[in-house]
Each structure stands twice: as structure tokens, then as C-alpha cells.
Write a sequence for this structure.
């Protein structure tokens, strides 16, 4: 057999094999019975937080003259206060599908909110009792600490999104001087950032 | 000489088709590039409130007349 014939046969074989593979690629025609496929779905990150309890009302009362009243929602106590004690708290929930870091602030200073001489507003952030692990990492409000108009970190590690532990309690302690008066409210703002 | 030309054309066609088949197989059209974006929440708010009533002032002048010893 001449070398030209050999080259011709090889070329024809290459053409035939190439056409076969090109055909299966372009048409999608599959010659095997045991093939696999893959289904993909991409779920985008969705960040969201919501106060499931958005109002904390300490009610009404008078301060004992010569003293400052101290109302503690965590302890459910009120000293030098004629009104009822309050034992409820704000409840914040991570309603998204990603862990967040959390920051808190008020929109008023303690003086703007309560008035009088040397008022004080303090916050305390804890996991909801049946949801340990909801808030991890740096927490400026691990114990009662003054909350002001600057964002302060509450859950520096993560505010978790898993349903079993995605809620935190925010308690408040108000120190009300005897020269404060009137109906007073302030807004608490929470900001979550993708951890 | 005529045969050599035919063989040359045949080899060129074979090479072109082979390269095309290899290129098609190497290209994975099902691949997907995904990206992620940082997600932040819009600030959410809650309200705390208290109503502070006037102090009860003891009025020592309001004693019952004649009650003094």
C-alpha cells in the first residue's frame, strides 16, 4: 500500500470521527442510555430584620420627689415610681436568609427623650430565652449600657437567621429625674449588615 | 501529482474537522458563573415610651382646723 493511500484512509477516518462528535455536540443527540444531568438553582442572599414586638410602653406614673425613678423592663421593677412595673421588651427577628451583624441607636438623646436633670437610657441585648445563639460576638449591650444617637454594635459576630434561633430581646432601663414631666417617646433604630 | 493534491485536500479537511470537534467538546456551554452581592437591611425601628405625671406634693398647710393641740 502506498503512503498516499494510508494518509487518505487515515484522513477519511478522522473526518468520519470528527463529524460524529460534531453531530452529537450540535444536535444534542446522545448515543448512551446511562447519562446524567444536573439541575442548578441559585438562591440569592436576602437580608431583613423586623421588630416582632415594636412597642415598649412603660406606662404612666410619678417620680417620688427628691429621687430619680429607675424603670427596668428586664427585672420588671420600678423604684421611686408610682406607676405599674413593666416586664416586657422589644423583640427583633432576623427574617432573611443570611447572618447579619447588628447595630442599634436611638433618634433622641436621653435629655431629649426624658428631659429633666441627668436622665439616662440604657439598653440590654440578650438572646430570646428559648433561642440561645441568636446573637454572638461583640455586644456593647451585653449588660445594661447607655444607648445614644450613634450606632453601636450589638451582635458583632452574627445575628443568626436560622428559624430556631433568630430572635433577640432588647430590654431598657430608664432613669427618670423628679423634674421630668410629660408623655415621652423615642425611636429605636436597628441596622443589619451582611456578615 | 493529481493524487497528491487530493490527499492534501483530504488531510486539510480532516484537520479542520478534528479541530472543530475538539473545540466543541472542550466548550462547556452549561457552565454558569455566579456572583454574590453584599446584602444590607433597611433600618427598622421600634418605639419606647413613658408618661411622667406631676409629683405628689405634700401640703402641710391643709390641716384640719382645730386639730392642733
Amino acid at each position: 500500500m502506498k503512503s498516499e493511500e494510508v494518509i487518505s484512509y487515515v484522513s477519511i477516518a478522522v473526518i468520519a470521527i470528527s463529524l460524529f462528535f460534531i453531530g452529537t455536540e450540535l444536535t444534542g443527540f446522545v448515543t448512551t442510555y446511562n447519562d446524567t444531568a444536573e439541575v442548578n438553582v441559585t438562591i440569592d442572599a436576602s437580608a431583613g430584620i423586623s421588630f416582632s414586638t415594636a412597642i415598649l410602653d412603660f406606662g404612666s406614673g410619678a417620680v417620688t420627689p427628691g429621687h430619680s425613678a429607675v424603670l427596668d423592663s428586664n427585672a420588671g421593677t420600678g423604684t421611686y415610681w408610682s406607676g405599674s412595673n413593666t416586664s416586657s421588651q422589644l423583640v427583633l427577628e432576623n427574617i432573611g436568609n443570611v447572618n447579619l451583624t447588628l447595630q442599634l441607636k436611638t433618634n433622641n438623646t436621653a435629655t431629649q427623650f426624658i428631659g429633666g436633670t441627668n436622665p439616662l437610657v440604657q439598653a440590654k441585648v440578650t438572646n430570646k430565652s428559648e433561642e440561645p445563639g441568636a446573637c454572638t460576638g461583640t455586644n456593647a449591650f451585653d449588660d445594661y449600657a447607655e444607648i445614644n444617637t450613634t450606632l453601636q454594635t450589638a451582635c458583632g459576630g452574627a445575628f443568626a437567621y436560622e428559624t430556631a434561633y433568630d430572635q433577640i430581646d432588647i430590654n431598657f432601663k430608664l432613669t427618670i429625674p423628679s423634674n421630668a414631666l410629660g408623655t415621652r417617646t423615642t425611636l429605636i433604630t436597628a441596622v443589619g449588615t451582611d456578615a | 501529482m493529481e493524487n497528491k493534491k487530493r490527499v492534501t485536500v483530504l488531510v486539510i479537511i480532516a484537520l479542520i474537522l478534528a479541530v472543530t470537534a475538539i473545540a466543541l467538546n472542550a466548550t462547556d456551554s452549561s457552565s454558569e458563573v455566579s456572583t454574590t452581592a453584599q446584602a444590607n437591611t433597611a433600618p427598622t425601628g421600634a418605639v419606647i415610651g413613658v408618661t411622667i405625671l406631676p409629683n405628689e406634693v405634700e401640703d402641710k398647710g391643709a390641716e384640719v382646723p382645730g386639730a392642733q393641740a
Q: What stands out?
A: Residues 1-25 of chain B form one domain. The longest strand of chain B covers residues 44-53. Strands of chain B lie at 44-53.
